[in-house]
TrEMBL record:
TM segment ranges: 40-62, 74-93, 105-129, 150-168, 211-233, 254-274, 286-304
Domain of life: Eukaryota
A GO CC term attached to the entry: membrane
Secretion signal, residue range per the UniProt entry: none
GO terms for MF: G protein-coupled receptor activity; olfactory receptor activity
Name of protein: Olfactory receptor 7E24
Keywords on record: G-protein coupled receptor, Membrane, Olfaction, Receptor, Sensory transduction, Transducer, Transmembrane, Transmembrane helix
Membrane topology: Multi-pass membrane protein
Organism: Theropithecus gelada
Gene3D superfamilies in UniProt: Rhodopsin 7-helix transmembrane proteins (1.20.1070.10)
Length: 335
């Protein structure tokens, strides 16, 4: 049971004697109640985390070291990889440590910190995907003006704007949670500190706070996806006007990886949200949360590297330089 900084107090709308004020710790939900399964799960998630970090670092390294990839599309991709590393690092290391130490406790300050960074990087992912959709829209629908429109200053401004808006969203969530002073329980029905879970635990009236969060979700969630849908509507319309089938395939291939990542990100996020609303089982909702917090960031580098010849060639050249520096023969085909 979490410690209390103050005495127990009754909230106006509840009579449960367990209502708590001054909570200093919360309890996170374990993935499994079986102690023998904990080391197996810890090893699995550690492997997935390492693959995620290594894969995204390779994307960043390939883009930064290869002059062929110094373009707006790959500049945005490297920032997306950086955001994915931060996104998965806010939840998975803590979960792995808890499995190894058989602890479910997270401090109040730690919970707020984790929640802030989780919202920050999730929103950065959201914003960058919409920026990348705009980049593909300009490249396909206005190819002759692409270099003029997507100049380095605009690209840098769009990335900074994405981080600033995401930081604003994160701080607004933190301010809302800081206003909660009374809780019915300290057990969070997830493996990380989810803002919606903390609102559900509050024993005070959270109607206004929930409306603010829903409004923020509509602004920071619906507007980016609307921009993505509009961009791809224009892209598809432009591609369909291309006379040759080869030209159509080439145009589709330039945005295929991004479209796959968009579907994966929003698909798993939507499944996770619907599961938390519809499913009465917290563990089923937690499985859905694992999909978009662990699996999606891990798959993104594979999607871009497997479907993108430029990334493959850059990784091969990078590997060749590393092997050559160790006086070994490169075995990677230089495409």
């Amino acid at each position: 049971m979490a410690q209390q900084r103050g005495s127990a107090a009754q909230c106006p709308s509840y009579t449960d004697p367990q209502n708590l004020t001054g909570v200093s710790e919360f309890l996170l939900l374990e993935l499994s109640d079986d102690p023998e399964l904990q080391p197996v799960l810890a090893g699995l998630f550690l492997s997935m985390y390492l693959v995620t970090v290594l894969g995204n670092l390779l994307i960043i390294l390939a883009v930064s070291s290869d002059s062929h990839l110094h373009t707006p599309m790959y500049f945005f991709l490297s920032n997306l990889s950086l955001a994915d590393i931060g996104f998965t690092s806010t939840t998975i290391p803590k979960m792995i440590v808890d499995m190894q130490t058989h602890s479910r406790v997270i401090a109040y300050a730690g919970c707020l910190t984790q929640m802030s960074f989780f919202v920050l990087f999730a929103c950065v992912d959201d914003m960058l995907l919409s920026v990348m959709a705009y980049d593909r829209f300009v490249a396909i629908c206005h190819p002759l003006q692409y270099r003029v429109i997507m100049h380095p200053r605009l690209c840098g401004f769009l990335v900074l704007l994405s981080f600033f808006i995401s930081l604003l969203d994160s701080q607004l969530h933190s301010l809302i949670v800081l206003q909660l002073t009374c809780f019915r329980d300290v057990a969070i029905s997830n493996f990380f500190c989810d803002p919606s879970q903390l609102l559900h635990l509050s024993c005070s009236d959270t109607f206004i706070n929930e409306m603010v969060i829903y409004f923020m979700g509509a602004i920071f969630g619906c507007l980016p996806i609307s921009g993505i849908l509009f961009s791809y509507y224009k892209i598809v319309s432009s591609i369909l006007r291309v006379p040759s089938s080869g030209g159509k395939c080439k145009a589709f291939s330039t945005c295929g990886s991004h479209l796959a990542v968009v579907c994966l990100f929003y698909g798993t996020g939507l499944v996770g949200y619907l599961s938390s609303v519809v499913s009465p089982s917290p563990r089923k909702s937690m499985v859905a949360s694992v999909m978009y917090t662990v699996v999606t960031p891990m798959l993104n580098p594979f999607i871009y590297s497997l479907r993108n010849r430029d990334i493959q060639s850059a990784l091969c050249r990078l590997h060749g330089r590393i092997v050559k520096s160790h006086l070994l023969h490169p075995f990677c085909y230089m495409g």
